[in-house]
Amino acid sequence: MQTEARVGVVMEGGQRTISSGHASLAAVDGVSLKCSGKRRPQQPQQQVPIGIVSQLLSGGVAGAFSKTCTAPLARLTILFQVQGMHLDGETLKKASIWREASRIVRDEGFRAFWKGNLVMIAHRLPYSSVNFYAYEQYKKLLYMIPGLEKQRNNFSADLSMHFVGGGLAGITAATATYPLDLVRTRLAAQTNVIYYRGIMHALRTIIKEEGHLGLYKGLGATLLSVGPSIAVSFSVYETLRSFWQSHRPHDSTVSVSLACGSLSGIASSTATFPLDLVRRRKQLEGAGGRAHFYQAGLMGTFRHIVRNEGFRGLYRGILPEYYKVVPGVGICFMTYETLKMLLADASTTL
């Protein structure tokens, strides 16, 4: 969930006037967040409003394109995260990004860096759709709570509502689209032995061998990471952005958003990476007909990893995750802005 929250705050920081009679789409690649309050005065810019469908399409395509560009690093992250399930201690000590990347090219071919990328793309649009719709509904429900309707223009109340609404929307979207996320992990974790031949084959095989609940392995760790991921990304981003603008008020908004978004992404990844690692490993439990590796729940899995791999084992694969933060945020942000402008121009000519 790290990338979802981090791109969310960047989108909100870089573009604050996108509206269509509804709330702003703050996170097209993750949890929707909208923050209102006192801002430094900015020169008025002529904006062409675009509809919800255009926002959703721009966000979905931007997220998919960004993840496609950074897919090699994403696959390396997954492979490192699950190494502790099938490698001994001495082999784990020798593991490195360069060695693993060379093995992929040598044994699987260069295209193997994009294993699981198609299902990731298929995951983007439904995730964004559910996330955006759920955020709107949760926000309406929250403002129906007695006493909150009168607090619409209160900064603290608005911040709390958007934070809670965004968290609930993220949980809803993650749950609704989780089977695709699990399939993506299993396809990306395959190396020389191909057990799952594609998205539909993987879904059918998992249901047949592990039951329908098998599609939701690791969901608990995913849901637990939503809140901390949003909280860290949002608070770090807003703090850095406010500090930057107070000292350098004339810097480009885009530059500030990209820099602060990247740093908030690093902070979010660091804070929630252990949960992400446990999620990946739980997703692979029983994959390919193998016996279950962990015989305990979430906390038992944490204890098993720390006992056998040390505390550093919880951060196995964090380096490629760090490496993809800056390009991932930058590509997604720029693609989103470009598509939004193109769709706005197209809507005015129709």
Automatic annotation (TrEMBL):
- Entry keyword set: Membrane, Repeat, Transmembrane, Transport
Q: Where is the signal peptide?
A: none
Give the chief site where it resides: membrane
- UniProt record, GO biological process: transmembrane transport
The Solcar repeats are found at: 50-141, 157-243, 252-342
* A Pfam family: Mito_carr
Keyword Glycosyltransferase found: no
GO CC terms of this entry = membrane
Cell location: Membrane
- Give the way it sits in the membrane: Multi-pass membrane protein
Q: Which family does it belong to?
A: Belongs to the mitochondrial carrier (TC 2.A.29) family.
How is this protein named in the record?
Mitochondrial substrate carrier family protein B
